[in-house]
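Cross-check.
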Amino acid sequence: MTPEPLATSLTNGGDSSLSDAEFDALAGDAAPDAGCVADGCSPWIWAGGSSVTNQGGVYGTLGSPAPTNVPGARYGAVAWTDAAGKFWLFGGAGDDSQATLGELNDLWKYASGEWTWVSGANVIQQAGIYGTQGTPSASNAPGGRQWATASRDAAGNVWLFGNVAIDSASQSGDLNDLWKY
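Predicted model, tokenized:
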């Protein structure tokens, strides 16, 4: 059996449950808001961070928001918004406080125009601290990782699963560890 080829673009495919305008909006093809076109505004707003590549993080004081705090450049991070609309960012491969590239395990929160370094290390390649399975502890921490999978449940907990990470023995590889925050 030959697998079906992946589509290279979205098409309505004759689905009569969506109008062409609704489908175009879902596919990202909708025209910008007429008021926005009239006054020349853009739907994108640069909210923060640097306009140049490979910038290290400015961590500030753990748990304290500040206008100068900013996570370092990264890829393969996990991000979500909480019920209050605050933006959260965890790990990835990127630049730490010394602008050194590697796996990160830092957790950040963005609210009211400021970043807060919430937990994790401000340097790369941190081993996971697993503690006792099923028991919460302030010292528990996932190791630095990239391309993890995460989801927020109905109670607001974030579940983080594996991928390329630093384990409890400081070895890098594919992990299947599951974390709840």
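Helices lie at 20-26, 34-39. The chain has two domains: 14-45, 74-180. Passed to J.P. for a second look.
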